[in-house]
Design goal:
This protein has 234 residues and is mainly α. The protein has 2 domains: 8-63, no CATH class; 86-227. Helices cover 75% and strands 0% of the residues. It is built from 10 helices and no strands. 21% of the residues are buried. The chain crosses the membrane at residues 94-114, 129-146, 158-176, 188-206. Keywords: Membrane, Transmembrane, Transmembrane helix.
Length: 234
Amino acid sequence: MMNSQLTKEQIDLLYKYVADRDVEYFDVQVELVDHLASKIEEELDQHPEKSVEEVMKQTLKMFKKRDLKQVVKEKEKQVGRLYRRYWMEGFKDFFIGSKIFFTIVLMGVLYIFLRKAPIELVKIVNENILWPCISLGIVYSIFIFFRNVMMPQKLSLTSYRGVGTGLVVINFYSAAKLVLKFTMLGESTYPLAATLLISALFLLGTTEIQAYEKLRAYSRQLYPEVFKSVPKFV
């Protein structure tokens, strides 16, 4: 809770102080300002003879720019750990959770196609999978970019990976093409191996996108004020 002894103008000065020192994430600004305000309150309680302005000046001198940057780095590491937790939970859900039926259907349909389809058809798919993957990747990247632009404040949670997540869809093309080359388009065909590898690639990419979306949903819960001007579907 913010210090009741500080006015709104003084709180705004604290926000300006951390923002001017390259702390661009609003969530990190909130944590730092809350910490600074607590330090100021503690000092005022111990030394009531001092003015708020004097204590603010002394307190801010204690925090150097490199110290604030270190806080930002620690926050980014924390967000990374949360992302990896969401990723692991999402990936396991495809095999031991509610999405296992989807995994079975995906692998079953893909296996039947690779085993029954003529090699010429597999070649056509292999040669024409590029543009759909690139198109989807670009569209998703643009979508991420513009919905972040719509936010009045930048958050560490929504900035993690960000537009780069769209590259996962594009990279799927190269990996899937390589798999088909060595499992289906050689002298011998291995539809089961191709099914397992391509399914794994698809699920890995899907899990990465889901993890990013969970980070965004979590940030909306924590900082609803940042999303007031952002449509709920975005």
